[in-house]
C-alpha cells in the first residue's frame, strides 16, 4: 500500500499509551509485516495538560472527537477510552464517516455489540475487539478463525484478573477478602470502581461476547446469570482444599442443540484441572470443541502492553483487509435464534456446606432430603462441633444433578429441623461431563 495508515487514538490512559508505545517501538517491523507505515494522527483525551509518563507531540492531543471523526485522512479509530453511551454514539459516527474501528471496550461490546457490528458492516467498515476479552490472550481470534471449522461445545474461563488475584491471595496466603481486594486495587488490576469486578459483571460482559461468537447466537448481557465473589468466606476455600477442590470465579458457556447457557459464578474445580493452576491476575480460557478436543489459552488478561498488543493485532487485521480490498466483511451475523437452556437441563455436581444442630438422626434427615430428589453423595466431610453454639458443620459433595433439583434440595434443607443454616453451595466444574 503506497499511502500509510493513519490512526486516531481515542483515549490515552493505560491501554492508549501502550498502543502508542508499540507503534513507536515497532515502527519498522510493522511496516515490513503490513507493507505500509502506521502513524498516530490525533489523540483524544479529557485533559490534554495531564502529566503523562510518555513523550508525545502536544499538537497530537485534542479534546474534540470531531478532530478524529471528521478527519478524512484518518483510516482507523482506536477506541480505548471506555464508557458506554457517549462512546457508542462516537463509534456510530466513525462508521458513518467510513472509518474502521478497533476497540478494547468490553462494556460497550457486551451491551451494543450486535448494533455496532451491524453499523460497521452497513458502512463496509471493520470492527474488531480482540482486547475486550482476556486482555493479551488472542481468544477471540482463536474462536472466530482458529476454530472456524470446528464445533465448540463449551467454554470455561477465568476472565477477570482482579477476582482471580483475590481468590489466589486468600487461598495461598490466608489473606482476608478485604486485604486481597486492597492489594488488587493498588496493583492496578481492579477497575476504578471494583464492584463490576467482584460482583462478576466484568466477567459476564466478556462471557456474553465469547458466547455470541462461539455459538453464533445473539447472546445479550442480560442472558448471563451472574454471581460474584464479594465478601467470599475464607472457610469455603479451606474446606475445598481438604476435598481437593480449588475455588475460581468461572465464566461458563455451553450449548446443546443451539440452546445456550451462560453464567459467571464462584465454582470449585478439581485441583488437577488446568484452570485450577491459573494464579494471581492471570486469565485462561478452556475450550472444548468437537474436532480439536480440549484447548487452553493462558496469559495476562489486563495491563498496558498485553492489552495494547491485542489492539494492535486488530489494527494489523484491518490493514490486511484494506490491502486485500475486503474491509467490512468480518461480521458474521449470528445464524441461530436465541434459545436459553432451561434450568432443569443444566447439570452439575455441587458442594454444599451446612451448619447442623447436633441432634441424633441428622444424617438420616439430610440423606432423605437429597434422596427424594435423586441426588447422591460423592463425599461428606464432617467438621468437629464448634464449642460456642453447639452446631456442627457438614460439607457434602454431590454427584451430578440439575440446577432445579439442587435449588429444591437447598430450600428443603433450610426448612428442615436439623439444619441451622445452609451456609453456602457452589457448582463443581470440570469434574463431570455434561
Ligand atoms: N486497563 C486494562 O488492562 C484493560 C482495559 N480494557 C479496556 O480498555 C479501555 C481503556 O482502559 P484504560 O486504558 O485502562 O483506561 P484509562 O482510564 O487508563 O484511560 C482512559 C483514557 O480515555 C480518556 N477518556 C476517558 N473518557 C473520555 C471522554 N469522554 N472523552 C475523551 N477522552 C476520554 C482519558 O483521558 P485523560 O487521560 O485526559 O483522563 C484517558 O486517557 C476500557 O474500555 C477498558 O475496559 C480492556 C482490557 C484490559
Ligand atoms: N478489571 C479487569 C481488567 C481487564 O479487563 C480485570 O481484573 O480483569
Give short descriptive properties of this protein.
binds NADPH dihydro-nicotinamide-adenine-dinucleotide phosphate, 7-stranded mixed β-sheet, Dihydrodipicolinate Reductase, domain 2, 14 helices, 26% strand, binds ligand LTNE7NMQ, alpha/beta
- Percent range of helical residues: 25-40%
Rg estimate, integer Å: 24 Å
Main sheet properties: 7 strands, mixed
Give the distance, in angstroms, between the N- and C-terminal Cα atoms.
Answer: 50 Å
CATH superfamily of the largest domain: Dihydrodipicolinate Reductase, domain 2
Write down the domain tally: 3
Strand content: 25-35%
Low-confidence stretches: none
**CATH class annotation of the largest domain:** Alpha Beta
CATH third-tier fold name of the largest domain: Dihydrodipicolinate Reductase, domain 2
- Chain-averaged pLDDT: 93
Morphology call = elongated
The structure class reads alpha/beta
Number of helical regions? 14
Q: How many strands?
A: 18
Bound compounds: NADPH dihydro-nicotinamide-adenine-dinucleotide phosphate, the ligand N[C@@H](CC=O)C(=O)O
CATH architecture term of the largest domain: 2-Layer Sandwich
Amino acid at each position: 500500500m503506497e499511502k500509510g495508515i493513519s490512526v486516531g487514538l481515542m483515549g490515552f490512559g493505560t491501554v492508549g499509551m501502550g498502543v502508542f508505545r508499540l507503534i513507536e517501538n515497532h515502527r519498522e517491523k510493522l511496516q515490513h509485516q503490513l507493507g505500509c507505515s502506521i502513524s498516530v494522527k490525533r489523540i483524544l483525551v479529557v485533559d490534554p495538560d495531564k502529566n503523562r509518563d510518555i513523550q508525545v507531540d502536544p499538537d497530537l492531543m485534542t479534546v474534540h472527537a470531531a478532530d478524529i471523526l471528521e478527519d478524512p485522512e484518518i483510516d482507523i479509530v482506536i477506541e480505548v477510552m471506555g464508557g458506554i453511551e457517549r462512546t457508542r454514539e462516537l463509534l456510530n459516527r466513525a462508521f458513518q464517516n467510513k472509518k474502521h474501528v478497533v476497540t478494547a471496550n468490553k462494556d460497550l461490546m457486551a451491551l451494543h455489540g450486535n448494533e455496532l457490528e451491524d453499523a460497521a458492516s452497513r458502512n463496509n467498515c471493520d470492527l474488531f475487539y480482540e482486547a475486550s476479552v482476556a486482555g493479551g490472550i488472542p481468544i477471540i481470534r482463536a474462536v472466530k478463525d482458529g476454530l472456524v471449522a470446528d464445533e465448540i461445545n463449551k467454554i470455561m474461563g477465568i476472565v477477570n484478573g482482579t477476582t482471580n488475584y483475590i481468590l489466589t491471595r486468600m487461598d495461598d496466603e490466608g489473606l482476608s477478602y478485604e486485604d486481597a481486594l486492597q492489594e488488587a486495587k493498588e496493583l492496578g488490576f481492579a477497575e476504578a470502581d471494583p464492584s463490576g469486578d467482584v460482583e462478576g459483571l466484568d466477567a459476564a460482559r466478556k462471557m456474553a461476547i465469547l458466547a455470541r461468537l462461539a455459538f453464533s447466537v445473539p447472546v445479550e448481557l442480560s442472558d448471563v446469570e451472574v454471581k460474584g465473589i464479594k465478601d467470599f468466606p475464607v472457610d469455603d476455600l479451606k474446606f475445598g482444599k481438604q476435598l481437593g477442590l480449588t475455588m475460581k470465579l468461572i465464566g461458563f458457556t455451553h450449548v446443546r442443540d443451539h440452546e445456550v447457557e451462560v453464567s459467571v459464578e464462584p465454582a470449585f474445580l478439581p485441583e488437577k484441572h488446568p484452570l485450577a493452576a491459573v494464579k494471581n491476575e492471570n486469565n485462561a480460557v478452556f475450550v472444548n470443541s468437537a474436532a480439536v478436543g480440549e484447548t487452553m489459552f493462558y496469559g495476562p488478561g489486563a495491563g498496558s502492553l498485553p492489552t495494547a498488543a491485542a489492539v494492535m493485532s486488530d489494527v494489523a487485521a484491518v490493514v490486511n483487509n484494506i490491502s486485500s480490498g475486503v474491509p467490512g466483511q468480518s461480521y458474521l451475523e449470528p445464524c441461530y435464534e436465541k434459545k436459553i437452556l432451561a434450568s432443569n437441563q443444566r447439570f452439575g455436581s455441587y458442594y454444599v456446606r451446612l451448619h447442623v444442630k447436633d441432634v441424633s438422626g441428622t444424617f438420616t434427615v439430610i440423606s432423605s432430603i437429597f434422596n427424594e430428589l435423586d441426588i447422591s453423595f460423592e463425599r461428606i466431610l464432617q467438621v468437629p462441633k464448634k464449642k460456642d453454639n453447639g452446631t456442627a458443620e457438614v460439607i457434602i459433595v454431590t454427584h451430578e444433578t440439575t440446577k432445579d433439583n439442587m435449588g429444591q434440595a437447598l430450600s428443603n434443607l433450610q426448612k428442615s429441623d436439623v439444619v441451622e443454616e445452609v451456609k453456602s453451595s457452589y457448582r463443581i466444574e470440570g469434574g463431570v461431563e455434561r
